[in-house]
Amino acid sequence: MLTAIRRPSLFDVSRLVFVGAVWGGAFLFISIALQDFGPVSIATWRVTLGAAVLILIALVLGQKLPTGSRNWRLIFIVGFLNSAVPFFLISWGQQAISSAESALLVAMGTFVSLLLSHFTSDDERINTPRVIGVSIGFVGVMVLVIWDLIESGTGNLPGQLAVMAAGCSYATSSVISRRLMHLPMISTSAVTMTSACLYMIPLAFLLEDPLPPQVSSSSIIALVYLGVIGTALAFTLRFFIIRANGAVFMSQVGYLVPLFGVIWSGLYFADAINLQTLISLAMILLGIAVTRKGS
Question: Is residue 122 a contact partner of residue 63, using CB atoms and an 8 Å limit?
Fold first, then answer.
């Protein structure tokens, strides 16, 4: 039986802020893990740890596994687009760009998702506020890219394009995931993450060494954060927030991820925040706000 959603309380808002802070912190911990692990290995450990913990949570909650060949086909597609591809692309891209810049560029997916939803759904149509919001947000992303091209040439461009592609992959998977909303959320997330493991584990051993002989404690902590907290715990909290307050309230986390991504990077890396980062952050948050007005 469906439970009626409630008006968000201070506790509900604090949970949403916590999820935004956790997801925003992932970009910083990727930078830390890159000291000892390659991008494929980081993505592999993230999906493996995340899948293991999500399976345990699904068992505790008593959620059954999805059934039906159509659902499982979609699960493997979502696992590829929502975990395997973006986790790798973000880690690979951050070899060239900062975690703050990565947190902002991945917001490209928020605006791409709106465009895709216009053509794939009946309740997310493009209107004037959304066009304006997408335009503002896109300009905000381009501020980072063009400014970097002026200052550093094309050296960082592949990394920037990789992170933006990761955002587009998230956007595509979110559209496909709408066809799985009738399934139990935690168990579906668990098997989706497990399907990503089937892609990533062979690649990690083929292309890199996911088990290097010497690893710093900070890199291990970073991987645990990415898999257990940034993936499994955040996905579980997302489930409870949507169940209590609805998907529209949960969507407000889109404001918080780039904001916290910049904050955590600025606290850890002394040179992470510069003028173009602040201009881009302001325009992206404004773009998201305007698009929300059109919802």
Answer: no
